[in-house]
Design brief:
single chain; about 190 residues; mainly alpha; two-stranded antiparallel sheet; 8 helices
Length: about 190
């Protein structure tokens, strides 16, 4: 009965592990290179703007899809998770990492970054920049675009003017501001 329970034929079978040498193939390698011209499932990247932040090799100043309120909320959520340790919640560059002595990143509110194309932020998240490492393995391309859109919102919140507000909305703001001011007099 003990001999019948010791079948090793399924446990000891001829196989090659990755990078193990073999004499089966002419090049002596057990692993095979992908067939030329093939793409792994889920890895087809035809949309240059979506996956690189560039159009014709130049950083683009537009988004590859329409940005909705839901996209901005998702961008804020992802920004708060991945970006605030260094950039803080306002984008000033005074996150906890900088407070602990690491060199602070530049503020998103400096002129150079306010005028940078949206593709710049996507590219930095994808490839890293300076002491910032790549987030490509951690954040999906669509979410990197949403974070870039949220960075634009942070920039607009600090540097917006009344002229940036549509006229109909501006009138609503001035009415509610005058009503609030009138209610505060005592």
């Amino acid at each position: 009965m003990l001999v019948a329970g010791c079948r090793l034929d399924m446990h000891i079978q001829p196989k090659y592990l990755p990078y193990e040498p073999t004499n089966f193939f002419g090049d002596g390698r057990s692993e095979r290179q992908p067939v030329t011209g093939t793409v792994a499932r889920g890895q087809l990247r035809l949309d240059e703007l979506l996956y690189t932040g560039k159009e014709n090799g130049v950083l683009a100043d537009k988004f590859p899809f329409p940005i909705t309120r839901a996209d901005l909320e998702r961008g804020r959520e992802r920004y708060n998770i991945y970006c605030t340790p260094c950039h803080d919640y306002t984008g000033q560059g005074d996150g906890m990492i900088a407070q602990r002595g690491f060199p602070p990143p530049p503020s998103f509110h400096i002129e150079r970054l306010r005028t940078a194309p949206a593709g710049h932020f996507f590219d930095v998240m994808t490839n890293g920049f300076g002491s910032m490492y790549s987030y490509a393995a951690r954040v999906e391309p669509e979410d990197r675009w949403r974070i870039a859109a949220y960075i634009r919102v942070l920039q607009a919140s600090r540097h917006g003017t009344i002229d940036d507000v549509p006229l109909a909305e501006r009138q609503t703001l001035t009415q509610s501001a005058s009503g609030a001011a009138g209610g505060q007099t005592r």
